Protein: Aldo/keto reductase
Amino acid sequence: MQNRQLGTAGPQVSAIGLGCMGMSPMYGANVDRAESIATLHAALDAGITLLDTGDFYAMGHNELLINEALHTAPAAHRERALTSVKFGALRGPDGAWLGHDGRPAAVKNFLAYSLQRLGTDHIDIYRIARLDPAVPIEETVGAIAEAVQAGYVRHIGLSEVGPETIRRAAAVAPISDLQIEYSLLDRGIEDEILPVCRELGIGITPYGVLSRGLISGHWSRERTTDAQDFRSVAPRFRAENLDRNLDLVEALRKIADGKGVSVAQIAIAWVLAQGIRHATAIVPLIGSRRRDQLTETLGALDVTLDADDMAAIEEAVPANAAAGTRYPEAQMATLDSEKK
Ligand SMILES: NC(=O)c1ccc[n+]([C@@H]2O[C@H](COP(=O)([O-])OP(=O)(O)OC[C@H]3O[C@@H](n4cnc5c(N)ncnc54)[C@H](OP(=O)(O)O)[C@@H]3O)[C@@H](O)[C@H]2O)c1
Structure:
């Protein structure tokens, strides 16, 4: 497994990270704990070192899962694993989303609980999931910087914030990486956000690289989603948009077939290739939640795309071709990264 330096201030991490969200009931209630642990172990065994989670992924469930996986893995694998944890999202007992809290006291409180659930004395990269509009980013990042000084956190990350917030945060303390949606369907970061990150030496850890499964090559019109599955409310999966989006996947499949690889591997390889194109550390977080998905994901590291391949892919899925926004309207409004 190749490693990447995540921004000038960040750690060395594997070229692909494992996003663990789907191992908790965020993409449907049907999660398999034994398979999740086996997938985490297989990822560590394959050399993946970066594990991404959020304290609000099923209210601590995801962190407890990672704790179990790390503490049942060989010591050498556990020791090289790096945890990337998001905090700040407020949840109700019914699972409702109640906003975000970035106050310094809240940061300390979230951190104390995460350390306990993860069974560790430090978190490698800590970030607020969404900007709290009531708290200046300087105060939230300042609180994490204090936790770095105290040894509870190693690096500071950001999530779904735009150029101005990135600059303000970076003026307070070194930032390792920005976590943000980036895929063939979502290239919005290329105009302003990516250049600012490159200028400031901040890496990018894209999520949604498979557009939450939509462009994995495994989604179909017949697939059903339950109420706990984000995709049941995601505009791109809605009937009127799904047909158009799956047409894009079929165009991509022709290219994948021609190269003898899978659609998911082409989609991941395209994002990996952007790191070279934009001279920035781009380390995709792929949400493989089963071992077969992980195997497919790892195969993307062996896919080479030349200029002709890149042109063909971008002709099959032109920028802004996706039908529907990446989040429902109310959630789009909470994204600092989408502010015009
Ligand atoms: N900062 C943020 O705001 C934010 C937001 C969302 C996520 N994240 C992080 O980013 C990570 C990745 O995001 P994501 O899970 O939404 O994105 P993703 O990688 O685009 O989608 C993962 C989903 O795609 C499907 N899939 C099909 N084939 C796959 C394959 N070969 N490998 C992997 N997945 C395959 C799976 O769904 P099925 O099993 O249902 O087919 C899986 O749950 C999350 O786990 C989380 O840690 C961050």
